[in-house]
Every structure is written in C-alpha cells, then in structure tokens.
Design brief:
The longest helix has 37 residues. The termini are far apart. 5% of the residues are buried. The protein is built from five helices and no strands. By secondary structure, it is mostly helical. About 4% of the residues have low confidence. It folds into two domains: 34 residues, no CATH class; 94 residues, no CATH class.
C-alpha cells in the first residue's frame, strides 16, 4: 500500500514540476528550435506510398517464386500420387493468389482508407503514388 501511495505522489509531483510554470522545469518558452525534416517526404501519405511501393517491389518477385515453388510441389505430388502433398501444393497456390489479389487491390484499399479519414475530395488529391524517392541529404 505504501509503495502504491509513494508512486502516486511521485507521479503527481513530476506532473506539477513539468507542467506548472514557475514550479520547476516548465516555464515560458522564449527560444524556438526549428527542426528540419530529415525525410524526403513531406506528408504521411507520401511516406506510406513510398513504403508500400518498396513492399510491392519486393512482393512481386516473391510471389513469382512462390508460384514456381507451388508448381514444383504439384509436379512432385502428382508424380508420387500423394494426396496430402497435393493438398499442400493447392494451399500454397491459393495463398499466393490471395497475396497477389491483395497486392493488386492495394491502391484501392489505400484510397478507401484516405476517403474514410480525409473525405472524398481530399482523398482524390492525396491519392498515394507508389514511387520510391531518393532521400534528400542536406550538407
């Protein structure tokens, strides 16, 4: 009980010291620090678009490899006549196609999310372009 009380009092004291002007660390801010954007993207939509663009660039070759592996599984399972292996090959092919369907509809999904949060007009203006930008390095 004493430990909980001391934790509560410590939290209240820290809150007062940090928020009430003149009580501690909080006070009137006279100097402002200007932070430069270290990213090459100005908005969250641009950043998400760049990340999704990179993911799509990685996911498409992975999907091609998965299709090839599923095909090899089908051939090996068909040759051996093992129904369990054929079922595994079908599931691998099914999930590869589900992943490709999600990739194909990614632009539409992101448009719907933007429309939900921003509204229709702003969603059209903020439609994500899948492009990878080079980071801007300021010397």
């Amino acid at each position: 009980m004493l430990k909980k009380l001391s934790t509560l009092l410590g939290s209240i004291l820290a809150f007062i010291l940090l928020t009430v002007p003149g009580a501690g660390l909080a006070g009137e801010v006279t100097d402002f620090v200007e932070f430069k954007n270290p990213l090459a993207w100005d908005t969250l939509n641009d950043l998400v678009g760049a990340v999704l663009g990179m993911l799509v660039a990685i996911a498409i070759p992975v999907a091609v490899v998965m299709f090839l592996l599923a095909g090899v599984k089908f051939i090996r399972a068909g040759a051996s006549g093992n129904s369990g292996e054929i079922k595994k090959a079908k599931m691998a092919l099914l999930w590869t196609m589900v992943g490709l369907a999600i990739l194909a509809s990614l632009s539409g999904i992101m448009y719907m999310v933007n429309e939900f949060f921003l509204g229709e007009k702003q969603a059209q203006e903020a439609q994500i372009q899948y492009q990878i930008k080079e980071p801007i390095i300021n010397d």
